[in-house]
């Protein structure tokens, strides 16, 4: 089973007008470039977080691949905010203690991610190529679940960045193979598929 | 081979002893009979000694001069370990250290340890393989992992070959109902507890959590027949003779089964409904846990052969034919 984790494209921060696209114009182009690259991998399934910035990214991938985007709230970003304006530590430094009301601890978030990933593994077959449209926290959680190391490593993931994992049960070299991390494209380079690093993109 | 089995009068231990004898090994059992049963060990010598009694244990080692040790003797409840940390660390760690000290002193060449999937803890992406990062969630799981590390250190110093067998959920009984699990009224293992409720010996089966994000909302576990586990111990012990690499090995079927599915199979086997009561999740209970058992196959040629309905049927036959097993 191949898993393509796609981070949502660039979105508008702050107050959001419900009649306006959640993605910025640049975000739409990022999503189109990623969708173009993904379509060439002939994905078999498309799942998405229910949050609008991910859902709208997934809609663009759906249009390029002909797949129907299936919503799965387990792909949502960690809920980490205080409604009382309290300054919170980084969620990865607050692993087990009760989070503020309505928020998730990192442990609870990891459990949600693990459940989602385990279900995919349980139903896995060799020819599956699944796109998961999600958020940067999900990339970190998957990495930590598979590799350990607690919060020692944080992953940089650009808007519309893609990480490609392969699940190969029983392989003596390792059940999980990381093919690529944070693959990103310059939107104008759709034709030559030029890779760009996140640093180059943000420059 | 001369094999000393600590905790050999317990559930998995007694099945393993039977298999070792059937395979022609010379077996001595050490058990303090705190939970083990004298009647579960027949046709071999039983010494009633506590693993914390290093002098008593030393006599057994000196007399028998084992070539191999299978170490089962331990306390084994995650729930209980939260209430009694000191006893768990004392029995499981000091006890294991005593056994290892005597192994080193008498030149034991092979060591098989009864570890647990509790070393993995949660959360984990399942199936878990032996390379998964460990996150034990209870003092019990911690002791099992610390024992694994201690065994590796002793083995490195002495050249002993070892395997840390990480069991998933042992269940089932002998085909002829001659041997099985003794699960008293404080037991927490799902299958005997469910059978107790089905027989009307308990008012209901409490299911802890029906809001897990699984197909039917109940937790997923990997149940493995005790005969398969026993067979694995013999295969691994004999495989270590050939000098294979030491380390942890998962023993599971690699098939997740929900609590609800298990109760459905029990209904089919028993012809009776199990009265259930839905309770909230218990802290520390993993929502899902199942094994990637490929290493045991690649390294020792072992895989679990017995299906879920066989597990449930043999457990039902055992507990209904031996009512004392539920007292």
UniProtKB/TrEMBL annotation, chain A:
SUPFAM superfamilies hit by this protein: Phosphoglycerate mutase-like
Organism of derivation: Streptomyces pyxinicus
InterPro entries: His_Pase_superF_clade-1, His_PPase_superfam, Mito_Ser/Thr_phosphatase
Keyword Hydrolase appears in the UniProt entry: yes
Keywords on record: Hydrolase
Protein name per UniProt: Histidine phosphatase family protein
Tree of life domain: Bacteria
CDD domains with a match to the protein in the record: HP_PGM_like (cd07067)
Annotated spans, Disordered: 7-28
UniProtKB/TrEMBL annotation, chain B:
Any Pfam family the entry gives: Epimerase
Pathway in which the depicted protein is active: Carbohydrate metabolism; galactose metabolism
Keyword annotations from UniProtKB, A to Z: Carbohydrate metabolism, Isomerase, NAD
CDD domains xrefs: UDP_G4E_1_SDR_e (cd05247)
The keyword Membrane appears for this protein: no
Cofactor: NAD(+)
EC number: 5.1.3.2
Catalytic activity: UDP-alpha-D-glucose = UDP-alpha-D-galactose
NAD-dependent epimerase/dehydratase domain boundaries: 3-252
Keyword Isomerase: yes
Molecular functions (GO terms): UDP-glucose 4-epimerase activity
Subunit-level organization: Homodimer.
Family in the record: Belongs to the NAD(P)-dependent epimerase/dehydratase family.
NCBIfam families tied to this protein: galE
Name listed for the protein in its UniProt record: UDP-glucose 4-epimerase
Species for this entry: Streptomyces pyxinicus
């Amino acid at each position: 089973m191949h898993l393509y984790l796609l981070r949502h494209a660039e979105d508008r921060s702050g107050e959001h007008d419900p009649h306006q696209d959640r993605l910025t114009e640049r975000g739409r182009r990022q999503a189109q470039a990623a969708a173009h690259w993904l379509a060439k991998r002939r994905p078999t399934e498309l799942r998405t977080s229910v949050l609008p910035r991910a859902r709208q990214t997934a809609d663009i991938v759906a249009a390029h691949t002909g797949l129907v985007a299936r919503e799965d709230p387990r792909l949502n970003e960690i809920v980490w905010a205080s409604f009382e304006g309290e300054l919170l530590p980084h969620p990865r430094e607050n692993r087990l203690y009760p989070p503020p009301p309505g928020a998730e601890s990192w442990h609870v978030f990891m459990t949600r991610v693990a459940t989602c990933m385990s279900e995919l593994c349980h139903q896995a077959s060799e020819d599956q190529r699944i796109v998961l449209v999600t958020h940067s926290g999900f990339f970190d959680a998957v990495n930590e679940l598979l590799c350990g190391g607690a919060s020692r490593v944080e992953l940089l993931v650009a808007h519309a960045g893609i990480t490609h994992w392969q699940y190969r049960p029983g392989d003596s070299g390792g059940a999980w193979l990381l093919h690529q991390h944070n693959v990103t494209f310059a939107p104008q380079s759709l034709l030559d598929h030029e890779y760009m690093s996140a640093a180059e993109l943000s420059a | 081979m001369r094999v000393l089995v600590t905790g050999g009068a317990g559930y998995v231990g007694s099945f393993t002893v039977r298999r070792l004898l059937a395979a022609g090994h010379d077996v001595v059992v050490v058990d303090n009979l705190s939970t083990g049963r004298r009647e579960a060990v027949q046709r071999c010598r039983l010494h009633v000694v506590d693993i914390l009694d290093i002098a008593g244990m030393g006599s057994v080692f000196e007399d028998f001069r084992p070539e191999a040790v299978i170490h089962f003797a331990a306390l084994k409840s995650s729930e209980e370990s939260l209430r009694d940390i000191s006893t768990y660390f004392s029995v499981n760690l000091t006890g294991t250290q005593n056994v290892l000290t005597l192994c080193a002193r008498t030149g034991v060449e092979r060591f098989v340890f009864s570890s647990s999937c509790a070393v993995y803890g949660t959360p984990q992406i399942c199936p878990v393989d032996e390379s998964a990062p460990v996150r034990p969630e209870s003092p019990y799981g911690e002791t099992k992992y610390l024992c694994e590390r201690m065994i590796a250190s002793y083995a490195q110093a002495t050249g002993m070959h070892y395997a840390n067998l990480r069991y998933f959920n042992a269940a089932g009984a002998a085909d002829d109902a001659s041997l099985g699990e003794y699960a008293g009224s404080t037991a927490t293992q799902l299958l005997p507890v469910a059978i107790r409720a089905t027989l009307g010996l308990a008012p209901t089966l409490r299911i802890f959590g029906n809001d897990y994000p699984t197909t039917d909302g109940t937790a997923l576990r990997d149940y493995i027949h005790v005969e398969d586990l026993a067979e694995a111990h013999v295969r691994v012990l004999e495989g270590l003779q050939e000098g294979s690499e030491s380390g942890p090995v998962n023993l599971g079927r690699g098939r997740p089964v929900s609590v609800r599915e298990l109760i459905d199979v029990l209904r089919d086997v028993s012809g009776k409904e199990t009265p259930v009561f839905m309770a909230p999740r218990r802290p520390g209970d993993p929502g899902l846990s199942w094994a990637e058992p490929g290493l045991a196959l690649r390294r020792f040629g072992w895989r679990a052969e017995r299906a879920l309905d066989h597990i449930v049927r043999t457990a039902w036959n055992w507990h209904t034919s031996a009512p004392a097993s539920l007292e």
